[in-house]
Amino acid sequence: VCILERQIFDFLGYQWAPILTNFVHIITVILGVFGTAQFRPRYVTGYAVWLVLWVTWNVFVICFYLEVGDLSKDTDLIMTFNMSMHRSWWMENGPGCMVTPVTPAPNWAPEDHRYISISGCLLEYQYIEVAHSTLQIILALAGFIYACYVVKLITEEEDSFDFIGGFDSYGYQGPQKTSHLQLQPMYM
Question: Model pTM?
Answer without folding.
Answer: 0.72
